[in-house]
Amino acid sequence: xxxLSSSSRSSRAWGVQLAAVFRGAVIAAISSLxxxxxxxxxxxxxxxxxxxxxxxxxxxxxxxxxxxxxxxxKDVFNRAARSVVxxxxxxxxxxxxxxxxxxxxxxxxxxxxxxxxxxGSFSIEFDGKSYPARQILADVRSGVAMLxxxxxxxxxxxxxxxxxxxxxxxxxxxxxxxxPETPSFGMIxxxxxxxxxxxxxxxxxxxxxxxxxxxxGAPLLNLKGEVVGILVxxxxxxxxxxxxxxAAAEKIRNDFVRFGEVRHGWIGANVTEAKTTAEGSRAEIxxxxxxxxxxxxxxxxxxxxxxxxxxxxxPEDVLDASFFIxxxxxxxxxxxxxxxxxxxxxxxxxHPASRNIPxxxxxxxxxxxxxxxxxxxxxxxxxxxxxxxx
Length: 390
What we know:
The protein has helices spanning 9-44, 60-80, 113-116, 246-259, 292-296, 317-323; strands at residues 84-90, 95-102, 108-112, 120-126, 129-139, 144-148, 169-174, 182-195, 198-208, 219-221, 227-234, 241-245, 265-266, 269-278, 281-288, 303-307, 310-311, 330-337, 340-347, 349-350. The chain contains 6 helices and 20 strands. It has 4 domains: 9-81, no CATH class; 83-148, Trypsin-like serine proteases (Thrombin, subunit H), CATH 2.40.10.10; 162-258, Trypsin-like serine proteases (Thrombin, subunit H, Beta Barrel), CATH 2.40.10.10; 265-370, Pdz3 Domain. The strands form 5 sheets. Strands 1-2-3-6-5-4 form a 6-stranded antiparallel barrel. A 6-stranded antiparallel β-barrel has the order 7-8-9-12-11-10. By secondary structure, the protein is α+β, with helices and mostly antiparallel strands. It is globular.
């Protein structure tokens, strides 16, 4: 995932405020040294001065900075809170509670798969009323679900997670436990493709923000109030959480709008780490399966440079590239072979998971007992070694 610097005025204001605090502290320190020096000179001349306790009053600039940051969070909360709702559902074992948020004015909302994926009898608390909701999509590979109520609703604007960087401030709004909507303030801690040895389906945002039960599905917002992610899981001790970048969720929604279903696509070429780098990439194609990759002319030994709009520099880049492939679309794929770069236009096929045909990473068919219901495709299952197939 691209980690471009944030261009938002809010982030720049955050930096300016911190710099102002630092300047205030330096000026205060210099002033204290000057006062101390003057007192020493007066004592040397036999003049005495009454002692006074040190002035511990915070500098005005520090107070202003804290107030300004607090006000930004309040502004985001006030603008976004009405679009965030509490979700109640029932599965085979118990009641399910979580958070969701509206993405269009017709009552469509996002939540996490853990909230809206396998439960039923959904109800949404919105504007002080309870509305029945129906599931229109659940996708375990991405970790998101979509519900809908019959009402005219507000909607949150979408932002760009690729503009985030480490330490970018963010805000989440959720319904923890049995409490009302609650803002949480934190920062981006990392961009991870795997956790504890297991790969995500695409890069996830690691956020230093405590997520409680009931906040799954909450929107992650930048300081402009734009959605940049969806909270999908928490880390141990709830000290931090993972969020799916909003572009990944939008890929799922766009598939649904176009086709009425999720269409995870694939090309069908296994990739591993090359011994040498070519054109900045170490992603070498090791073998071609009986898939569109074989039909277009790709060969084992080609160095993969780009899949669609995603540049490839290492085998793990295939995770992000393959996630955004839609079955049926023509995908330009650029490889380096010999002394030249070659671009193939490949029509992506359905990922075996989308057709409920479980596959191992090397392309072999897995037992049919591993199948899942429609629109609940298998997660991309990569080995601990950096191998994959787009």
